[in-house]
Design a protein that fits this description.
The chain is an alpha/beta fold. The protein contains five helices and seven strands; from the N terminus they run E-H-E-H-E-E-E-H-E-H-E-H.
């Protein structure tokens, strides 16, 4: 189990892009959020523990499936567990499909590393 300081939150992050995961980890660290990254749905399912994580963040489009598969698994293990979706883009149809998960947020990825390294908070485009 990854140890965190008492004022930090541990969040599971399903992301297949190592650079995106690194940028997100740098950004979230500013706010006391530590990301525990899994790069596949299978690994994320094996690592998921509702008593360990405060929430999960999942990319939507993964080489081994859709992030919604992981969200379904998370909710089957603990109904109502906080899920955030992260994607490069969202269609209206996708957002409607995500409503059934009652997501905390649907965040939009940015490819600019400087965006994640700034000390000023930014707000997601959702």
């Amino acid at each position: 189990m990854k140890e965190t300081q008492s004022d930090e939150l541990l969040v599971q992050y399903l992301e297949d892009d190592a650079d995106a995961a690194k940028m997100a980890a740098l950004y979230m660290q500013q706010f006391g959020i530590i990301l525990d990254v899994s790069e596949s749905i299978e690994k994320a399912k094996a690592a998921f523990d509702p008593n360990r994580y405060a929430a999960v963040i999942t990319d939507l489009n993964l080489p081994d499936g859709k992030g919604t598969e992981f969200a379904e698994y998370v909710h089957s293990m603990q109904a109502g567990f906080p899920v955030l979706f992260l994607s490069g883009s969202y269609s209206d149809e996708t957002l409607i499909q995500l409503e059934k998960f009652d997501p905390v947020a649907c965040l939009l990825k940015r490819g600019d590393p400087e965006h994640y390294q700034k000390n000023q908070p930014t707000y997601p485009q959702a």
